[in-house]
Amino acid sequence: MNAPRQDLRVRHTRLQDYQAMLARRLREARSLPAVDSYLGLQVGARHWLLPLAQTGEVIEMRQPARVPLTQPWYTGLVSARGNLLGVIDFGLFCGEGVTPLQPGSKIVVLSREVERACGILATRVMGLRHAGELSPPPGGTGSGACREWEGASLVDREGRGWQVLDVRRLLDTPAFLQAGRRPA
């Protein structure tokens, strides 16, 4: 009769220890600063980090329908969940040439707001990246952005360079908003 009571006490003690450990971890987690998360993607030869809070969904690659009298970097329109979505060749927009596509290439939707959303071609989506895994480049501050929509330059643990894309600023940039071109 004594053995079952002792088992019950041991279980009760273990449960109390577990609850105390869980409460401690929750307190520690609340005291830590929020960790920034990014979606990592490759556009041509460059690696970009899109803040998750500013990024919509990733959709399968499909051929956009061309739109006449648009900039060369405006590849056309696709239907995404019943909405028309303008698709941008971001490599071409950045002046780095046509974005090479391969099996597995995707369209990454910028902005969670339907009215402002557009998609960019991604050669490859490279998954989530967290601020704790990234650091400024050696010998630099990591803020060498040359365009107003380029955020910090960072390096991952493998030494791969990343550029943060400030989606809100990009979507407000006059050159980006001017997808149409005047007829010759």
Automatic annotation (TrEMBL):
SUPFAM superfamilies cross-referenced by the UniProt entry: CheW-like
InterPro entries per record: CheW-like_dom_sf, CheW-lke_dom
Location of the CheW-like domain: 35-176
Record-given protein name: Chemotaxis protein CheW
Organism this protein belongs to: Cupriavidus malaysiensis
